Automatic annotation (TrEMBL):
<dbReference type="GO" id="GO:0006412">
    <property type="term" value="P:translation"/>
</dbReference>
<keyword id="KW-0689">Ribosomal protein</keyword>
<dbReference type="GO" id="GO:0003735">
    <property type="term" value="F:structural constituent of ribosome"/>
</dbReference>
<dbReference type="InterPro" id="IPR020930">
    <property type="entry name" value="Ribosomal_uL5_bac-type"/>
</dbReference>
<dbReference type="InterPro" id="IPR011035">
    <property type="entry name" value="Ribosomal_bL25/Gln-tRNA_synth"/>
</dbReference>
<feature type="domain" description="Large ribosomal subunit protein bL25 beta">
    <location>
        <begin position="111"/>
        <end position="177"/>
    </location>
</feature>
<keyword id="KW-0694">RNA-binding</keyword>
<keyword id="KW-0687">Ribonucleoprotein</keyword>
<keyword id="KW-0699">rRNA-binding</keyword>
<dbReference type="Pfam" id="PF01386">
    <property type="entry name" value="Ribosomal_L25p"/>
</dbReference>
<dbReference type="GO" id="GO:0022625">
    <property type="term" value="C:cytosolic large ribosomal subunit"/>
</dbReference>
<dbReference type="GO" id="GO:0008097">
    <property type="term" value="F:5S rRNA binding"/>
</dbReference>
<dbReference type="InterPro" id="IPR029751">
    <property type="entry name" value="Ribosomal_L25_dom"/>
</dbReference>
<dbReference type="InterPro" id="IPR020057">
    <property type="entry name" value="Ribosomal_bL25_b-dom"/>
</dbReference>
<dbReference type="InterPro" id="IPR037121">
    <property type="entry name" value="Ribosomal_bL25_C"/>
</dbReference>
<protein>
    <submittedName>
        <fullName>Large subunit ribosomal protein L25</fullName>
    </submittedName>
</protein>
<dbReference type="Pfam" id="PF14693">
    <property type="entry name" value="Ribosomal_TL5_C"/>
</dbReference>
């Protein structure tokens, strides 16, 4: 788990002023905290988080010498001007289960012989912090035409440490025959 440095945020400073000076306002919240903690990180750290992590990723945040194990709950981003507006973090408690999502990453898409249809991009689940997943990788190499992969078929979701928040029978992806699909469209 990465550790990022943050500073307590001056409540008098406006979020817009902070962003103009290269600082991203953030909040750390959770049941184990008496009150939410307003913090700030520099824009370059926020950009690195955006590139390497996603919602549901675990990150340690160090503020005034104290480290908080957290989960990225929301990264607000303005695509119009390429600006990170705000990041919300949730403090993790090792004894509690937390809701999160795992992104599905497909490897070797170009090696699929048929037509690949991906129905699920993220899988919601709950687990204790050490078992939370932020990504699950599915290797498509050598998957035959006619393959239908469900959430329950993915080994990471077969663990008794992970509680699925979706139906295990939900289809994640399907590989169909190119000819059959072409024939249906010609009729």
């Amino acid at each position: 788990m990465n550790t990022i440095l943050a500073q307590k945020r001056d409540q008098a400073a406006k979020a817009k002023q902070l962003r103009r000076s290269g600082i991203v306002p953030c909040v750390i919240c959770g049941a184990s905290l008496k009150e939410s903690l307003s913090v700030q990180i520099d824009q370059s750290t926020a950009r690195q988080l955006q590139r390497t992590k996603r919602n549901g990723s675990k990150v340690n945040i160090q503020v005034d010498g104290k480290t908080y194990p957290t989960l990225i709950k929301d990264l607000e981003y303005n695509g119009m001007n390429n600006e990170i507006l705000h990041i919300s973090f949730q403090v993790l408690d090792a004894r509690k289960k937390f809701n999160s999502v795992a992104d599905i990453v497909l490897l070797n898409k170009e090696k699929v012989a048929g037509i690949l249809e991906q129905m699920q991009m993220q899988i919601p689940h709950a687990a204790e912090p050490e078992y939370l997943l932020d990504t699950v990788t599915v290797n498509l190499e050598n998957m035959p035409i006619g393959t239908t992969l469900t959430i329950g078929d993915i080994p990471e979701f077969q663990s008794d440490k992970i509680e699925l928040q979706a139906d295990a029978g939900s289809i994640v992806l399907r590989i169909s025959d190119k000819k059959r699909v072409e024939e249906k469209t010609e009729q």
